[in-house]
Amino acid sequence: MHYLKRMTRKKGEDAVSPVVGVMLMLVVTVIIAAVVSGFAGGLVDGKEKAPTITMNVEIKNTGSFASSIFKADVLAVTEPIATKDLKLVTSWTNSDGTQGGAEVTGVNNTFGWGGAGFPDEGVAPWGYGQGVKSVNTGKPGETEQQFGNYILVGGTTMYAYPAGQSGGYMTGNATAGYGVETNGEYTDWEYTAGTTVDGMQAVLGKDWETLKTGDVVSVKLVHTPSGMTIFKKDVVVG
Q: Are the beta carbons of 184 and 209 closer than 8 angstroms?
C-alpha cells in the first residue's frame, strides 16, 4: 500500500512538470516579445518625421525662353522646410517616346549663365517670395535664391526657365539660348550634366525641350532626412 502511494505521487509530479515547462516558455516568449516591441518602438520614435507640403506646379514649353517655365507655388506646409533637406525629382516620357528627368539637390545641377548680373554658378529652381532671405523679383542673381539656400513656407515660389539672349540673360553670341534663333531649339548652348545647364535643363533634364503640350511630367519632393516623399504630382505640360 505504501509502495503504491509513492508511485501515485511520482506519477502526479511527472504530470505537473510539462505544464510548468510550458508556462515558463510562455513567460519567456512574452518577455522577449515585449523587449523586441519596445526596441522597435524606440526605432520608430527615433526616426525623423517628415513635414507635409501642398504645392501647385506648372510647366510650360512654348518654344521660347521668354515664356517657357517651371513654377511651383507653395500653398501650405506643416512646418518650414529647408531646401537643403530636399531632393526634387522629375521624370517624363514624351509623345515620341523620349525619356528624361533630373534629380536636383542643393549641391548638384549647377550651371554657368555667363551673363551680366547672374552668379557664376547657380542651382535651380530659384526661390522667390516668402522664405527667401533676399527677395528678388527679377533674375536669380542672389545666393539666397539658389535651391538649397532658402526655406519653403506658404507663399514661397520656385522658378526655373531656360537661358536666352535678352536683358542680360547671356552675353557673347546674340543667338545663344533656347528659342532665340529657332523656336523650340537651343543655339550655341551645349548640355553637360552638372556643369553647363540652364534652369529648365537643371530641373527637367536633357532634351526637356522635346516636351509638348499634353505630355506629363512626374514631379516629386523627397525629404532626405526621413527618406519620405512629401509631394508627388503628375503635371501636364501646357
A: yes
| Amino acid, res. 150 | Y
Q: Which residues pair with 129 in a beta bridge?
A: 156
Q: What are the phi and psi torsion angles at 203 (to 5°)?
A: -90, -35
Stronger pLDDT, 60 or 114, i.e. the higher one: 60
Q: What is the pTM of this model?
A: 0.76
**In terms of Cα–Cα distance, which of 120, 124, 143 is closest to 132?**
143
Other Cβ atoms closer than 10 A to 90: 21
Q: Distance (Å, rounded) from C-alpha 156 to C-alpha 147?
A: 12
Cα–Cα distance measured from residue 116 to residue 168, given in angstroms and rounded to the nearest whole number: 5
For residue 202, give Cα distances in angstroms to 4, 127, 129, 142, 236.
93, 14, 21, 18, 19
CA-wise closest residue to 165 among 134, 198, 142:
198
Give the separation between CA 219 and CA 217, rounded to whole angstroms. 6
